[in-house]
Design a protein that fits this description.
heterodimer, A: 312 residues, alpha/beta, Rossmann fold, B: 409 residues, 2 domains, 6-stranded mixed β-sheet, 14 helices
């Protein structure tokens, strides 16, 4: 039975203080806050350049657990060194305090997960590192002004894929990081969304059971970069799930299970229309073909899910 | 008899390191191969992890040091460059790990042979640097480097450099102290600010927005690095008393009565020392000033060693293209404010890519200094590029065999 069934089950403990320099409505803060509610105080957070870096600006920090800052592409390597260092101190020197048993969490954006940090992350998973890797995926380099990343969805406007002239914005498809991670054979891989908090909490709780890499990718609504209203964060996240664009799922040793299956998919344009990064699909003229392409990709995905889950 | 690489591995082993972060690269690989064997056999109680790149390897080793473990790694040339940004991260974390660099030229063109430009490119990264001339020095410098960097007054990582091939694959007699002997000199690392030991939760290296805070941290590192020279004297004296081998930031060779000094670093210093004996027989009053410590740079020691010397030939086994050798300007900074500084200081670039340094070239260096001292030649801030008639002929012959014509420089 799931441990977290409703809002009343959300732990009261707070390890992320309010009042950081993050943008209003930033989902990355909501994700970090709820992640730490489950993982608890015996956690050490590794962070790299990206939006969440500004949670900790000298001499202040909004994060109440130990926090180590590394270089952009090195988050997983830092986690490896910390885990190994703590382990060897316990094994060789017999040091046994709560510190050497810390959970190590890498908390980074999509640039550090899909692009520049991909190599170090892949290698850490390959080595079976006992850590959590959590990507707040806002689908672009948000902290530097919203440039294209490997996580940017098809047709999104970014500051390096402007929809000018005949351009439709980003012409590449988003990397499927869930499948890439799953192919590494990690014990636990999950997608999460701030619209489905209990689903998120239960997944972090479940991940605690596994030794080895525990990998999460969260859709991280970015009002500033996406051109969305900051009070709409949760509603946009919910639309992403209900249109089928952001499937909620987990894979335990490769075995995939969807934790939420929309009974009827809402049209993708309900989601796309909430954000200025997709506005060129609707104005000044409606780009039917592009909208249809996005809709069909989503339907194709869910057709396969239904087939495999029915047959499986 | 140990190779330089084996001496490095033994240096790490007797220092009772806790963690080895590895990634292969010629001519360094033998170091981590030996360590991996010892960890597997239980002769060395440590954790060995082979990373997927030097970028991750340096970050991982630094992070293990931050956790409170004694961390070791080794690399060379391309690997050092690949991990370069993490050099700044690790020194900024004030994580006193030790890294051996087996010096090699950086491609392109690709080479496996020595060119100290790799390690000198790391001079501004916040790492302390010790440079070894012999295999014994490699082993001793590693032990010293841990005691040095881990000192609470310093807390900076250290690079111990050796020349690829000339030292890494050369066997020399090396005295290996026992782990127990070393443990008395180098107790286990238990930093009160390490993740495993800290009494309170710490944020390591948060982002800084404003200049005054950033300047504060940078100045603090600089002052710690300067302090490191003084601390080195302390620990090197104790090391000498325990092990009978005394080291300083510099070493003087036949320099006390010399008119002319050849300044050098690393393994080619042995070649220069040999040449100095011959030059003395020819009547040149010449000696060698070897610089062991490149960061912090031993300004006072260099100035003191060169007081009374009239002419200096700097031998640079490196090249900052468009400027010259890298030791040369460092040395000029040391001596500029001297009351009677050497009148002539010339720069000579040679040995690049393991090119032989001949007696003829060394004699040429000294002759040029003498000519400038006598006013027979105009002193120049540009380096002389050592390239012999034989080098010219060999290059032309290589080209001819390949069916190409060589047009000269």
């Amino acid at each position: 039975m799931s441990r977290y069934r409703g809002v009343r089950d959300i732990p009261d403990e707070e390890y992320v203080a309010p009042g950081s320099a993050l943008c209003a409505g930033c989902a990355a803060e909501i994700i970090a806050r709820h992640m730490l509610k489950v993982l608890g105080r015996d956690t050490i957070m590794v962070n790299v350049p990206g939006c969440y870096a500004i949670s900790t600006l000298f001499p202040y920090t909004a994060v109440k657990v130990p926090f180590v800052f590394g270089v952009f592409g090195g988050g997983a390597a830092v986690a490896q060194g910390i885990r190994d260092g703590l382990d060897i101190l316990r094994e060789k020197r017999g040091i046994n305090n709560e510190r050497v048993n810390y959970k190590v969490v890498v908390y980074v954006g999509d640039g550090a997960a899909y692009d520049i940090g991909f190599q170090s992350t892949s290698a850490a998973i390959h080595r079976g590192l006992d850590f959590y890797f959590v990507c707040y995926d806002n689908e672009a380099y948000g902290n530097t002004g919203f440039q294209l990343s490997g996580a940017t969805p098809y047709a999104s406007r970014t500051s390096t894929s402007e929809p000018v002239g005949d351009s439709i914005g980003n012409e590449y498809r988003k990397k499927d990081i869930f499948e890439i991670w799953r192919a590494h054979g990690a014990p636990y891989v999950a997608t999460i969304s701030v619209s489905h908090i209990t689903d998120m909490l239960n997944k972090f709780e479940k991940a605690k059971e596994f030794r080895g890499p525990k990998l999460f990718v969260a859709l991280s609504i970015c009002p500033t970069g996406w051109g969305a209203s900051e009070e709409e964060t949760i509603r946009i996240a919910r639309l992403a799930v209900e249109t089928g664009m952001w499937p909620l799922k987990e894979a335990v040793y490769g075995e995939v299970r969807h934790t939420f299956i929309p009974r009827r998919l809402k049209p993708v344009e309900e989601y796309l229309k909430t954000q200025r990064r997709f506005r060129h699909l609707f104005k000044p003229v409606r780009r039917e073909e592009e909208i249809r392409r996005i809709q069909e990709a989503v339907e194709e995905y869910w057709r396969r899910v239904r087939e495999s889950e029915a047959g499986g | 008899m140990l190779t330089g690489n084996a001496a490095a591995a033994w240096g790490a082993r007797v220092s009772d390191i806790d963690y080895v972060a590895a990634y292969p690269i010629t001519p360094q690989s033998e170091i981590v191969e030996l360590l991996s064997k010892w960890v597997a056999s239980g002769e060395l109680k440590a954790k060995f992890v082979e990373y997927e790149s030097e970028h991750s390897m340096i970050a991982g080793a630094g992070a293990a040091s931050l956790a409170g473990a004694r961390a070791f790694t080794a690399t060379s040339s391309q690997g050092l460059a690949y991990g370069f940004e993490n050099l700044f991260a690790v020194s900024g974390w004030r994580a006193p790990m030790v890294m051996v660099n087996v010096s090699r030229g950086l491609g392109m063109p690709m080479t496996l042979q020595v060119d100290n430009t790799d390690v000198f490119s790391a001079r501004d990264t916040g790492w302390l640097q010790l440079h070894a001339e012999t295999c014994q020095e490699i082993l001793d410098f590693i032990i010293l480097a841990y005691r040095w960097g881990e000192d609470e007054r310093i807390l900076l990582p250290v690079i111990v450099n050796m020349d690829g091939f000339f030292l890494s694959f050369t066997r020399e007699p090396v005295y290996i102290p026992s782990q127990e002997e070393v443990a008395d000199f180098l107790p286990p690392y238990e930093p009160p600010h390490g993740i495993a030991f800290s009494p309170e939760e710490l944020a390591y290296a948060p982002t800084i927005i404003l200049g005054h805070s950033y300047s504060y941290f940078r100045y603090q590192m600089h002052l710690a690095a300067l302090k490191a020279k003084e601390v080195f004297y302390e620990i090197a004296r104790e090391f000498g008393e325990r092990f009978g081998r005394y080291y300083g930031p510099i070493e003087k060779y036949m320099l006390d009565d010399a008119d002319i000094a050849i300044v050098s670093m690393n393994s080619f210093t042995s070649i220069l020392k040999g040449a100095v004996k011959r030059l003395r027989e020819e009547g040149y009053r010449v000696g060698v000033l070897k610089i062991n410590m490149f960061r912090p740079f031993p300004n006072e020691e260099v100035a003191d060693a060169l007081s009374g010397v009239e002419g200096v030939a700097v031998f640079d086994l490196n090249l900052s293209t468009g400027a010259g050798g890298i030791i040369y300007p460092e040395l000029l900074r040391s001596i500029y404010h001297m009351e009677s500084r050497p009148r002539v200081v010339l720069d000579f670039v040679g040995g690049l890519g393991g090119k032989e340094l001949t007696y003829g070239e060394i004699r040429f260096m000294v002759r040029k200094v003498v000519e400038a001292m006598r006013g027979e030649a105009e002193p120049t801030p540009y380096p002389y590029l050592l390239f012999t008639e034989e080098d010219v002929q060999r290059l032309a012959a290589d080209m001819e065999i390949a069916g190409k014509k060589w047009g000269g420089f």
